[in-house]
From TrEMBL:
Domain (NAD(P)-binding) ranges: 7-329
Native source species: Alistipes communis
GO biological process, one term: galactose metabolic process
One Pfam family this sequence matches: GDP_Man_Dehyd
Quaternary structure and interacting proteins, as annotated: Homodimer.
Annotated PANTHER family: UDP-GLUCOSE 4-EPIMERASE
UniProt name for this protein: UDP-glucose 4-epimerase
Family: Belongs to the NAD(P)-dependent epimerase/dehydratase family.
Top-rank taxon: Bacteria
UniProt GO cellular component terms: cytosol
E.C. number(s) listed in UniProt: 5.1.3.2
């Protein structure tokens, strides 16, 4: 039987590149497209080195319908995983139109071409940001979505709604939205990992850049929250575990095991970890001392959010497995690789 082919939009990005590796390991063929606006072609080379497969790569912007159409004409894939989107919360507040134009137009192009070409399966990269500040914890897939706190979060909610409505309207189209919690870490090979441009917006790259001497000091935003140590609680999931969840979701679609035309899954560990615990865990895992300080709260930060993962565990047959210490070691190994410190 021929291998199923999966198109990965934004496949040179952090989660996309790790997902390409895991798809190939699971027996799929992958085609990567990316406009490299917030990623590097080196990530595609990393995927090729890890897998030993000359993965096809096309430099394409999913907002460019004509260019995307050519990809559909050239490759015979039944499933697409859509990662391509801008993702910085702060920037989205400052430049909302940039986010609405890019994140929604690109996704609507994908949906329209999937319908036109009769390709059945769309896997959408969503986010726990759709839950806002939840009233009860942990959050399940039935937890109500709150009004988004940023245009970025709003594009995730709107794209979910677009996918839901397309799957309801167009016979044969199936969609799954994976709501990620906080992806961290890197591939054990240290050949791919998170590579933010400029000042990192996420905690772990800021930690590793501080450890590497690129940043003078790590700021922890607020220690007066109603949590055990006063810092925010998050659900940190290893990026390789997250990538494997995409494989499980693609399996579910290609093997026709979906119970509805559109499904949602929370992808996390189910275990809350505080910001301070994560910082101290990084120090322990790598035998380092970080320069950090407590500063005032940051606007838009929710106090606590973590996943109830029972639905994903049961329906997808998937579970987060990598220990946090191992994940934090992999993040540091990747940082050292990038900086030539090995």
């Amino acid at each position: 039987m021929a291998k199923e082919t999966v198109l990965i939009s934004g496949g040179a990005g952090y989660i996309g590149s790790h997902t390409a590796v895991e798809l190939i390991a699971a027996g799929y063929d992958a085609v990567i497209i990316d406009n490299l606006s917030n990623s590097e072609a080196a990530a595609v080379e990393g995927v090729r080195r890890i897998t030993g497969v000359d993965v096809p790569f096309e430099r394409v912007d999913t907002c460019d319908e004509a260019a995307l159409r050519r990809v559909f004409e050239k490759y015979d894939f039944g499933s697409v995983i859509h990662f391509a989107a801008y993702k910085a919360v702060g920037e989205s507040v400052a430049e909302p139109l940039k986010y609405y134009r890019n994140n929604l137009a690109s996704f609507m192009n994908v949906c329209a071409l999937m319908k036109e070409f009769g390709r059945p399966n769309i896997l959408f990269s969503s986010s726990a940001t759709v839950y806002g500040e939840p009233d009860t914890l942990p959050v399940t897939e039935q937890t109500p979505r709150k009004p988004a706190t940023s245009p970025y979060g709003n594009t995730k909610q709107m794209a979910e709604d677009i996918l839901h409505d397309c799957c309801a309207a167009y016979e044969g189209l199936h969609g799954i939205a994976l709501r990620y919690f906080n992806p961290i870490g890197a591939h054990p090979s240290a050949l791919i990992g998170e590579l933010p441009r400029g000042v990192p917006q996420n905690l772990v790259p800021y930690i590793t850049q501080t450890a590497a001497g690129l940043r003078e000091c790590l700021s922890i935003f607020g220690d007066d929250y109603d949590t055990p140590d006063g810092t925010c609680l998050r659900d940190y999931i290893d990026v390789v575990d997250l990538a494997k969840a995409h494989v499980a979701a693609v399996d579910r679609m290609t093997q026709r095991r979906m119970k509805e035309a559109y499904e949602i899954f929370n992808i996390g560990t189910g275990t809350p970890v505080s910001v301070l615990e994560l910082v101290k865990g990084f120090e322990r895992a790598n035998g380092l001392t970080l320069n950090y300080k407590i500063v005032g709260r940051r606007a838009g930060d929710v106090k606590a959010v973590w996943a109830d993962t029972q639905r994903a565990n049961k329906e997808l047959g998937w579970k987060a497995e990598r220990p946090l210490e191992e994940t934090l070691r992999s993040a540091w190994a990747w940082e050292k690789h990038v900086r030539g410190m090995n």
